[in-house]
From TrEMBL:
Keyword Secreted among record annotations: no
Protein name from the UniProt record: HSD17B6 protein
InterPro entries cross-referenced by the UniProt entry: NAD(P)-bd_dom_sf, Sc_DH/Rdtase_CS, SDR_fam
UniProt source species: Branchiostoma lanceolatum
Pfam family, any one: adh_short
UniProt keyword annotation of Oxidoreductase present: yes
Key words, A-Z: Oxidoreductase
Phylogenetic classification of the source organism: Eukaryota, Metazoa, Chordata, Cephalochordata, Leptocardii
Any one Gene Ontology molecular-function term assigned to this protein's record: oxidoreductase activity
Family indicated by similarity: Belongs to the short-chain dehydrogenases/reductases (SDR) family.
One GO BP annotation of this record: steroid metabolic process
Protein backbone atom coordinates (compact mmCIF):
# COMPACT_ATOMS: atom_id res chain seq x y z
CA UNK A 1 0.00 0.00 0.00
CA UNK A 2 2.82 2.39 0.88
CA UNK A 3 4.49 1.66 -2.47
CA UNK A 4 1.28 2.53 -4.32
CA UNK A 5 0.98 5.75 -2.33
CA UNK A 6 4.54 6.76 -3.21
CA UNK A 7 3.96 5.92 -6.88
CA UNK A 8 0.76 7.96 -6.86
CA UNK A 9 2.54 10.96 -5.35
CA UNK A 10 5.37 10.69 -7.86
CA UNK A 11 2.91 10.48 -10.75
CA UNK A 12 0.94 13.46 -9.51
CA UNK A 13 4.12 15.46 -8.96
CA UNK A 14 5.36 14.63 -12.46
CA UNK A 15 1.99 15.66 -13.90
CA UNK A 16 2.04 19.01 -12.10
CA UNK A 17 5.64 19.61 -13.15
CA UNK A 18 4.86 18.80 -16.81
CA UNK A 19 1.89 21.18 -16.85
CA UNK A 20 4.00 23.93 -15.27
CA UNK A 21 6.77 23.45 -17.84
CA UNK A 22 4.21 23.50 -20.68
CA UNK A 23 2.68 26.74 -19.37
CA UNK A 24 6.09 28.35 -18.79
CA UNK A 25 7.40 27.51 -22.25
CA UNK A 26 4.42 29.17 -23.94
CA UNK A 27 5.65 32.66 -23.03
CA UNK A 28 7.35 34.44 -25.92
CA UNK A 29 9.86 37.30 -25.86
CA UNK A 30 8.52 40.84 -26.39
CA UNK A 31 9.68 43.14 -29.23
CA UNK A 32 10.85 40.41 -31.59
CA UNK A 33 10.98 43.00 -34.38
CA UNK A 34 14.03 44.54 -32.69
CA UNK A 35 16.04 41.31 -32.91
CA UNK A 36 18.41 40.05 -35.63
CA UNK A 37 19.23 36.42 -36.39
CA UNK A 38 21.78 34.73 -38.64
CA UNK A 39 20.88 31.29 -40.01
CA UNK A 40 23.27 29.09 -41.98
CA UNK A 41 22.17 26.55 -44.59
CA UNK A 42 19.06 28.36 -45.84
CA UNK A 43 19.01 27.08 -49.43
CA UNK A 44 16.55 24.33 -48.50
CA UNK A 45 15.30 22.29 -45.55
CA UNK A 46 15.17 23.42 -41.92
CA UNK A 47 17.08 26.66 -42.50
CA UNK A 48 14.86 27.78 -45.36
CA UNK A 49 11.70 27.09 -43.37
CA UNK A 50 13.05 28.87 -40.29
CA UNK A 51 14.11 31.94 -42.27
CA UNK A 52 10.59 32.29 -43.65
CA UNK A 53 8.95 31.79 -40.25
CA UNK A 54 11.14 34.38 -38.53
CA UNK A 55 10.61 36.82 -41.38
CA UNK A 56 6.85 36.51 -40.90
CA UNK A 57 7.28 37.18 -37.17
CA UNK A 58 9.08 40.45 -37.98
CA UNK A 59 12.63 39.55 -36.99
CA UNK A 60 15.53 40.74 -39.10
CA UNK A 61 16.96 37.63 -40.70
CA UNK A 62 20.37 37.14 -42.29
CA UNK A 63 19.88 33.96 -44.31
CA UNK A 64 23.17 32.29 -45.22
CA UNK A 65 22.91 30.33 -48.48
CA UNK A 66 25.59 28.25 -50.17
CA UNK A 67 24.33 28.98 -53.69
CA UNK A 68 23.36 32.06 -55.64
CA UNK A 69 20.09 30.31 -56.50
CA UNK A 70 19.28 30.04 -52.79
CA UNK A 71 19.98 33.75 -52.29
CA UNK A 72 17.79 34.71 -55.25
CA UNK A 73 14.90 32.48 -54.18
CA UNK A 74 14.71 33.91 -50.67
CA UNK A 75 15.16 37.48 -51.87
CA UNK A 76 12.20 37.04 -54.20
CA UNK A 77 9.85 35.25 -51.79
CA UNK A 78 10.46 37.07 -48.47
CA UNK A 79 10.14 40.62 -47.19
CA UNK A 80 12.80 43.30 -47.40
CA UNK A 81 13.70 42.64 -43.76
CA UNK A 82 15.27 39.33 -44.74
CA UNK A 83 18.79 39.74 -46.09
CA UNK A 84 20.11 36.65 -47.90
CA UNK A 85 23.89 36.38 -48.01
CA UNK A 86 26.11 33.83 -49.72
CA UNK A 87 27.89 31.82 -47.04
CA UNK A 88 30.02 28.68 -47.25
CA UNK A 89 30.65 27.62 -43.65
CA UNK A 90 33.60 25.45 -44.71
CA UNK A 91 35.45 28.54 -45.99
CA UNK A 92 36.92 30.91 -43.39
CA UNK A 93 37.09 33.69 -45.99
CA UNK A 94 33.37 33.32 -46.68
CA UNK A 95 32.60 33.33 -42.95
CA UNK A 96 34.63 36.53 -42.46
CA UNK A 97 32.83 38.25 -45.34
CA UNK A 98 29.47 37.29 -43.84
CA UNK A 99 30.60 38.60 -40.46
CA UNK A 100 31.50 42.00 -41.90
CA UNK A 101 28.17 42.20 -43.73
CA UNK A 102 26.19 41.40 -40.58
CA UNK A 103 28.32 43.65 -38.36
CA UNK A 104 27.85 46.62 -40.67
CA UNK A 105 24.09 46.04 -40.70
CA UNK A 106 23.42 45.55 -36.97
CA UNK A 107 25.89 48.14 -35.70
CA UNK A 108 26.16 48.41 -31.93
CA UNK A 109 22.94 46.44 -31.28
CA UNK A 110 24.68 43.14 -31.85
CA UNK A 111 23.17 39.87 -33.01
CA UNK A 112 20.40 38.21 -31.01
CA UNK A 113 20.55 34.73 -32.53
CA UNK A 114 22.91 32.45 -34.43
CA UNK A 115 21.46 29.25 -35.88
CA UNK A 116 24.12 26.78 -37.05
CA UNK A 117 21.99 24.72 -39.38
CA UNK A 118 24.22 24.05 -42.42
CA UNK A 119 25.09 20.39 -42.79
CA UNK A 120 25.70 17.48 -45.13
CA UNK A 121 25.05 13.77 -44.66
CA UNK A 122 28.16 12.37 -46.27
CA UNK A 123 28.79 8.84 -47.56
CA UNK A 124 26.63 5.91 -46.52
CA UNK A 125 27.80 2.37 -45.95
CA UNK A 126 29.68 0.16 -43.53
CA UNK A 127 31.88 1.85 -40.96
CA UNK A 128 35.04 0.80 -42.85
CA UNK A 129 33.98 2.07 -46.27
CA UNK A 130 34.42 5.90 -46.02
CA UNK A 131 37.88 7.33 -46.67
CA UNK A 132 39.67 9.91 -44.56
CA UNK A 133 38.76 12.45 -47.24
CA UNK A 134 35.09 11.54 -46.71
CA UNK A 135 35.40 12.17 -42.99
CA UNK A 136 37.20 15.47 -43.59
CA UNK A 137 34.53 16.70 -46.01
CA UNK A 138 31.72 16.06 -43.51
CA UNK A 139 33.64 17.48 -40.54
CA UNK A 140 34.54 20.64 -42.48
CA UNK A 141 30.86 21.52 -42.81
CA UNK A 142 29.06 19.92 -39.87
CA UNK A 143 31.59 20.55 -37.11
CA UNK A 144 34.58 22.72 -38.04
CA UNK A 145 32.38 25.09 -40.05
CA UNK A 146 29.96 25.36 -37.13
CA UNK A 147 32.82 26.14 -34.75
CA UNK A 148 34.31 28.72 -37.12
CA UNK A 149 30.98 30.52 -37.57
CA UNK A 150 30.29 30.50 -33.82
CA UNK A 151 33.72 31.81 -32.82
CA UNK A 152 33.52 34.53 -35.48
CA UNK A 153 30.09 35.81 -34.43
CA UNK A 154 30.48 35.54 -30.64
CA UNK A 155 31.48 39.24 -30.28
CA UNK A 156 28.14 40.28 -31.82
CA UNK A 157 26.24 37.81 -29.64
CA UNK A 158 27.92 39.12 -26.49
CA UNK A 159 26.63 42.62 -27.22
CA UNK A 160 23.02 41.46 -27.11
CA UNK A 161 23.48 38.59 -24.62
CA UNK A 162 21.95 36.44 -27.33
CA UNK A 163 21.44 32.80 -28.19
CA UNK A 164 23.23 30.10 -30.19
CA UNK A 165 21.12 27.31 -31.68
CA UNK A 166 23.11 24.34 -32.94
CA UNK A 167 21.40 21.75 -35.10
CA UNK A 168 22.76 18.37 -34.08
CA UNK A 169 20.86 15.12 -34.62
CA UNK A 170 19.66 12.03 -32.86
CA UNK A 171 22.76 10.68 -34.63
CA UNK A 172 24.80 12.82 -32.26
CA UNK A 173 23.86 10.53 -29.38
CA UNK A 174 22.99 7.31 -31.22
CA UNK A 175 25.59 6.26 -33.77
CA UNK A 176 24.53 4.00 -36.63
CA UNK A 177 27.35 2.01 -38.31
CA UNK A 178 26.27 3.00 -41.84
CA UNK A 179 26.50 6.79 -41.39
CA UNK A 180 29.67 7.02 -39.33
CA UNK A 181 31.17 10.29 -40.68
CA UNK A 182 27.84 12.04 -40.04
CA UNK A 183 27.56 10.58 -36.52
CA UNK A 184 31.15 11.53 -35.68
CA UNK A 185 30.49 15.13 -36.75
CA UNK A 186 27.26 15.34 -34.74
CA UNK A 187 28.85 13.86 -31.62
CA UNK A 188 31.35 16.70 -32.00
CA UNK A 189 28.51 19.22 -32.26
CA UNK A 190 27.08 17.87 -29.00
CA UNK A 191 30.42 18.18 -27.21
CA UNK A 192 31.11 21.66 -28.56
CA UNK A 193 27.59 22.82 -27.67
CA UNK A 194 27.88 21.54 -24.10
CA UNK A 195 31.25 23.25 -23.68
CA UNK A 196 29.97 26.46 -25.25
CA UNK A 197 26.87 26.53 -23.04
CA UNK A 198 28.92 26.18 -19.87
CA UNK A 199 31.63 28.59 -20.98
CA UNK A 200 29.39 31.37 -22.31
CA UNK A 201 26.84 31.46 -19.49
CA UNK A 202 28.75 34.20 -17.68
CA UNK A 203 28.44 36.40 -20.79
CA UNK A 204 24.68 35.97 -20.84
CA UNK A 205 24.78 33.81 -23.99
CA UNK A 206 22.60 30.70 -23.93
CA UNK A 207 23.17 27.65 -26.14
CA UNK A 208 20.44 25.33 -27.41
CA UNK A 209 20.77 21.97 -29.17
CA UNK A 210 18.27 20.68 -31.73
CA UNK A 211 18.23 16.89 -32.12
CA UNK A 212 15.94 15.87 -35.00
CA UNK A 213 15.15 12.27 -35.90
CA UNK A 214 14.23 11.34 -39.51
CA UNK A 215 12.78 14.35 -41.33
CA UNK A 216 12.18 14.92 -45.01
CA UNK A 217 14.94 17.26 -46.23
CA UNK A 218 17.15 17.34 -49.31
CA UNK A 219 20.06 15.52 -47.64
CA UNK A 220 17.93 12.42 -47.06
CA UNK A 221 15.93 12.35 -50.28
CA UNK A 222 15.54 8.76 -51.47
CA UNK A 223 17.41 9.49 -54.69
CA UNK A 224 20.31 11.18 -52.87
CA UNK A 225 20.59 8.33 -50.37
CA UNK A 226 20.58 5.76 -53.16
CA UNK A 227 23.23 7.62 -55.16
CA UNK A 228 25.47 8.08 -52.12
CA UNK A 229 25.22 4.44 -51.12
CA UNK A 230 25.90 3.12 -54.62
CA UNK A 231 28.74 5.59 -55.21
CA UNK A 232 30.44 4.38 -52.05
CA UNK A 233 29.82 0.76 -53.01
CA UNK A 234 31.32 1.20 -56.47
CA UNK A 235 34.49 2.72 -54.95
CA UNK A 236 35.22 -0.46 -52.98
CA UNK A 237 37.64 -3.17 -54.00
CA UNK A 238 36.28 -6.42 -55.43
CA UNK A 239 37.50 -8.20 -52.31
CA UNK A 240 35.48 -5.93 -50.01
CA UNK A 241 32.40 -6.24 -52.22
CA UNK A 242 32.62 -10.00 -52.02
CA UNK A 243 33.08 -9.82 -48.25
CA UNK A 244 29.91 -7.78 -47.72
CA UNK A 245 27.69 -8.93 -50.57
CA UNK A 246 25.02 -7.06 -52.45
CA UNK A 247 22.33 -7.99 -49.91
CA UNK A 248 24.13 -5.81 -47.36
CA UNK A 249 23.65 -2.75 -49.58
CA UNK A 250 20.00 -3.63 -50.24
CA UNK A 251 19.27 -3.89 -46.50
CA UNK A 252 20.69 -0.43 -45.80
CA UNK A 253 18.81 1.09 -48.73
CA UNK A 254 15.56 -0.54 -47.63
CA UNK A 255 15.95 0.81 -44.09
CA UNK A 256 16.55 4.37 -45.25
CA UNK A 257 13.71 4.37 -47.76
CA UNK A 258 11.01 3.02 -45.45
CA UNK A 259 8.76 6.06 -45.91
CA UNK A 260 9.00 7.14 -42.26
CA UNK A 261 10.39 10.63 -42.88
CA UNK A 262 8.39 13.40 -41.22
CA UNK A 263 7.43 17.02 -41.89
CA UNK A 264 10.51 19.26 -41.35
CA UNK A 265 8.27 22.12 -40.20
CA UNK A 266 8.29 20.51 -36.73
CA UNK A 267 12.05 21.05 -36.52
CA UNK A 268 11.74 24.67 -37.68
CA UNK A 269 9.19 25.23 -34.90
CA UNK A 270 11.65 23.89 -32.31
CA UNK A 271 14.37 26.20 -33.64
CA UNK A 272 11.94 29.13 -33.55
CA UNK A 273 11.07 28.34 -29.92
CA UNK A 274 14.75 28.22 -28.98
CA UNK A 275 15.16 31.74 -30.38
CA UNK A 276 11.88 33.39 -29.42
CA UNK A 277 10.66 31.79 -26.19
CA UNK A 278 11.19 33.56 -22.88
CA UNK A 279 12.18 30.21 -21.34
CA UNK A 280 13.69 28.00 -24.06
CA UNK A 281 15.00 24.49 -23.49
CA UNK A 282 18.68 23.69 -23.57
CA UNK A 283 17.98 20.61 -25.67
CA UNK A 284 15.15 19.83 -28.10
CA UNK A 285 14.67 16.13 -28.87
CA UNK A 286 12.43 16.51 -31.89
CA UNK A 287 9.86 13.77 -32.48
CA UNK A 288 8.91 10.71 -30.45
CA UNK A 289 11.43 8.37 -32.09
CA UNK A 290 14.33 10.43 -30.75
CA UNK A 291 12.77 11.10 -27.35
CA UNK A 292 11.35 7.68 -26.52
CA UNK A 293 13.39 5.17 -28.56
CA UNK A 294 16.81 6.17 -29.87
CA UNK A 295 18.12 8.27 -26.98
CA UNK A 296 16.75 6.03 -24.17
CA UNK A 297 18.58 3.12 -25.83
CA UNK A 298 21.85 4.94 -25.11
CA UNK A 299 21.06 4.88 -21.38
CA UNK A 300 21.25 1.09 -21.27
CA UNK A 301 24.48 -0.75 -20.46
CA UNK A 302 26.48 -0.83 -23.69
CA UNK A 303 26.24 -4.55 -24.45
CA UNK A 304 22.55 -4.65 -23.61
CA UNK A 305 21.87 -1.58 -25.76
CA UNK A 306 23.71 -3.15 -28.72
CA UNK A 307 21.70 -6.35 -28.33
CA UNK A 308 18.37 -4.46 -28.24
CA UNK A 309 19.36 -2.56 -31.40
CA UNK A 310 20.18 -5.80 -33.22
CA UNK A 311 16.88 -7.28 -32.03
CA UNK A 312 14.52 -4.37 -32.68
CA UNK A 313 16.30 -2.54 -35.52
CA UNK A 314 17.98 -5.24 -37.61
CA UNK A 315 18.22 -2.99 -40.68
CA UNK A 316 20.65 -0.79 -38.75
CA UNK A 317 23.11 -3.65 -38.32
CA UNK A 318 22.86 -5.85 -41.45
CA UNK A 319 25.20 -8.84 -41.49
CA UNK A 320 27.92 -8.99 -44.18
CA UNK A 321 27.99 -12.10 -46.34
CA UNK A 322 31.33 -13.18 -44.85
CA UNK A 323 29.86 -13.15 -41.31
CA UNK A 324 26.79 -15.26 -42.06
Amino acid sequence: MEVLTVLGLLTASWGVYSVWIWWRERKMLPKLVDKSVLITGCDTGFGNLLARRLDQLGLRVFAGCLTEAGVAELRQSCSERLQPIQLDVSSSDSVQQAFLAVKNSVGGKGLWGLVNNAGIFGPIGSVEWPSIADYQAVLNVNLLGLIDVTRTFLPLLKKSRGRVVNVSSVGGRFAAPFSTPYAVSKYGVEAYSDSLRRGMRCFGISVHIIEPEKFSTSIVLEENIRKSLHRTWESLSSETKEEYGRDYVDEIEKGYNDGSYKDPAVVAMAMEHALCAAYPRSRYEVDWGARWVAIPLTWLPTDLGDYVIRLLLPWMTPVPAACK
